[in-house]
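lol forgot to send this yesterday, sorry. struct tokens for the thing we talked abt
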């Protein structure tokens, strides 16, 4: 008998052990070929997976970079909140006339133009099996950005939530060039930033307790008369060229007529201010400097009066035309930011603009008192310190 090995016919008389050894060698060759094939397939699969993952990450980074460049511009720095930066840009948009703001067309106006980029970002994250919570945050902000009122709506919570999730995903440093950025955010002061030296008299002062003369003098005079005020009634004045509001307490007996004291006329620069008690002096007229009563009472009240340099008192006719002034420079104040966050409640109670000479005094009534600012002829605005003597 014979057998075949490697295509060659051999006689069975050959040693059977040699036959077994030959069979084992052939089996090992087959196993080695299979192993090499499997290793090759595994390496190719791992390379393809790595490539796909890298491409997915790049797509997400690019989509985020375009969206972020549109909404907030440069990367958020340590200690900064994305919502405050967007709020600053919104202040610029809100102070821009509608015709100018819409000049590029409705869909090209910030932040509305960022809505399609938000949608693209959300789709990219979703298609690449990204964080579902991040997708939800993007979609919520994208919907808010698409609204016509997005330039004035409070976007703060949505913005901070999205950028916090983006930072957790190591995306916040990414930006894409060629995207039209947001308007340069305004550095508008908030309540916490108002200078303490500009606070008028005390934290308890309200605009309702600040009374200016209904007549225009070269020197602006105010009478601050608050009910139950720990300071008591105060008279204040600022003349042209001065940078400080000079105030003095009104002594008794005039102070006892508080809170019904008002100014009702003009005052010569060399004369004392007069304080009228009751309705135009029906309860008496007092010297605001000495506190002395000058007129016991007036049956019908005074229709304006003037304090003369020689101490005399003259009645005047009421002027129906109110004083006015023109301020050519916009004055920004963000009244919805308190303690570093946006709030629906305004911190601004009211404001008054009081002209004197070529200048004016701006009074901001806030929930923490009244703050005074000097508005000069050229439009410069500066804090007006109060010196209480």
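and heres what i got for the seq, position by position
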């Amino acid at each position: 008998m014979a057998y075949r090995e490697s295509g060659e016919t051999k006689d069975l008389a050959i040693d059977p052990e040699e036959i077994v050894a030959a069979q084992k060698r052939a089996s090992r060759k087959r196993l080695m070929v299979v192993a090499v094939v499997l290793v090759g397939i595994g390496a190719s699969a791992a390379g393809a997976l790595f490539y796909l993952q890298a491409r997915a990450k790049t797509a997400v980074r690019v989509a985020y970079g375009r969206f972020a460049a549109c909404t907030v511009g440069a990367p958020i720095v340590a200690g900064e909140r994305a919502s405050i930066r967007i709020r600053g840009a919104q202040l610029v948009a809100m102070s821009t006339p509608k015709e100018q703001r819409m000049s590029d067309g409705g869909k090209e106006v910030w932040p509305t133009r960022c809505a399609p980029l938000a949608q693209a970002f959300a789709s990219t994250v979703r298609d690449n099996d990204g964080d579902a919570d991040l997708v939800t945050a993007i979609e919520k902000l994208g919907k808010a950005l698409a609204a016509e009122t997005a330039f004035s709506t409070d976007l703060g919570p949505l913005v901070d939530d999205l950028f916090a999730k983006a930072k957790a995903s190591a995306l916040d440093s990414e930006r894409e060039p060629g995207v039209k950025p947001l308007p340069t955010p305004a550095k508008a002061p908030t309540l916490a930033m108002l200078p303490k030296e500009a606070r008028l008299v005390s934290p308890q002062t309200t605009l309702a307790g600040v009374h200016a003369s209904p007549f225009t003098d070269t020197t602006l005079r105010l009478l601050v008369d608050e009910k139950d005020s720990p300071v008591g009634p105060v008279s204040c004045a600022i003349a042209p060229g001065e940078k400080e509001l000079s105030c003095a307490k009104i002594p008794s007996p005039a102070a006892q007529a508080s809170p019904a004291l008002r100014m009702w006329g003009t005052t010569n620069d060399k004369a004392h201010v007069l304080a009228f008690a009751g309705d135009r002096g029906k309860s008496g007229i007092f010297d605001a400097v000495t506190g002395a009563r000058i007129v016991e009472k007036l049956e019908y009240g005074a229709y304006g009066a003037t304090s003369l340099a020689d101490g005399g008192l003259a009645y005047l006719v009421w002027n129906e035309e109110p004083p006015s002034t023109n301020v050519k420079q916009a004055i920004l104040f963000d009244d919805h930011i308190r303690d570093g966050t946006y709030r629906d409640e305004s911190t601004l109670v009211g404001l008054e603009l009081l002209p004197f000479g070529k200048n004016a005094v701006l009074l901001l009534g806030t929930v923490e008192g009244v703050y005074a600012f000097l508005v000069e002829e050229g439009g410069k605005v500066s804090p007006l310190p109060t010196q209480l003597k």
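The first helix runs from residue 16 to 71. anyway ping me if u want another try
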